Amino acid sequence: MRTKRHQPDYILMIAVLMLTGIGIITVYSASTVVDLHEGMAADHMAIRQLLASIFGLLLFGGATYAPYHTWFKLAPKLLLAAVALLVVVLVPGVGHSSHGATRWLGSSSIHLQPSAVAIIVVVIYLSFLLTKRMTVLHDTRRAFRPAMVVVMMLTALVFIEPDMGTAMALFGTAVVVMFASGLRMRPLIISLGILAPIGYLLIHFASYRSSRMDAFLHPFSAASQQGSGYQLIQGLTAIANGGLTGRGFDLSVMATGYLPEPYTDFIFAVFTEQWGWLGDAGLLAIFAVLIWRGFRVARYARDRFGALLAIGLTSTIIIQAAINLGAVTWLLPVTGIPLPFISYGGTDIWINLLAMGILMSVSRETADTVTDVDSLAEILSVDEFRADRVQASQQPMSSRAQRPAQVTNLSSRRNTWPSSTGARKSQSDETSQMRRNLSLTWKAQQESSATRENRTSSRNHSDSKGSRKHKR
């Protein structure tokens, strides 16, 4: 199937631009008091967010009009770069630390967060890998294990920064892509079952993680109100103060010093206090439109790589937003992950805009109707496809050789795939000889049958002559 490039999905574009604009305005209203308290201009953080958004929009436009198959070719190099950044940020004296975590490269004014980059890279690389291994998806050794090794390596590097929220988002996005690719569910479920108790132990291994879990279970206890539960309580208070219609723009009380860093992870509480629950419904509706258009792009994508890209990039927004909103509204423990497009953060905004630009690029080459045809030849060479198919067909030979002796020679000849040109030729000659023998046997049977019929008819004819002569 070949499709001509057409106009991008403008509904998706409008949703992305609206979320970006709402984020800049909300950062301004949530950070003015903090900026003035620290001796800076009231719009200091809002301007920084605006500049990061402009840079992100440039990436958004460039990625929109760049063929998304370019990312297929760059996937291995991007993975190496992401791993290198995650390793470098852990080197003492190189990574920038804040609040006990080392997550950034660069100075405090201009920095890069490798963990945010890793989320997009894992989507691109898994889409590349699970497209290239399409012929061996049900081979655990050649498809599932390589994918799982990459996912666990990136998740572990992000987790030890420490950045548990981003590690959860990265792992969850990877699981969605692997599920959508058609991998076998049994090894995936077994892996999740093994990792669940390990994650539980890691949460209780660090004191600050266990305190967050205690604050989630008992936020209004005396210890939680003065410790880890303080931010959650102030966020819930802001949401309650908003009511149905909110206090109005830049009139949040909790952002004046009650809620710690109101422009980052708990910015949704400030937004709710200003615009109320009706404003929340409008914001969630825009996110819903983005998710709807993202999955629609995946549904009508012209090839497997584009579909997996669209699913993965849309899932990054869903999972990050779900974790953030769950933490703010007391549905999940506080993990410290930003709300996409809304929370303050330079790396987060331009990475999300880059991801949406790639999604827009996929939307430029969608088909008009859903089809089962996959244009693999446009991103994967025929030689690679054939090599994978031949190797996949040869792999089960060892297991077939160990079958019980009761299996007949006929079934073994029918089920065994030849491993060399000579074997294929000999098997072909044998098959041709069997077909010729069957043909000769069939012809002989037909001739003997015809002979019997002729003899019977001649005998009947002679009998009829004799009877007529007897009558005379």
Structural description of this entry:
It contains 17 helices and three strands. With 472 residues, it is mainly alpha-helical. A three-stranded antiparallel β-sheet has the order 1-2-3, with no helix packed on it. Strand 1 (95-98) and strand 2 (101-106) form a beta hairpin. Helix 4 (114-132) runs parallel beside helix 6 and helix 10 crosses helix 11 (267-299). The longest helix is centred in the C-terminal third of the chain and has 51 residues, at 421-471.
Please provide a brief summary of the model.
This protein has 17 helices and three strands.
Task: Supply database-style keywords.
472 residues; mainly alpha; three-stranded antiparallel sheet; 17 helices; 3 strands; globular; disordered C terminus; transmembrane
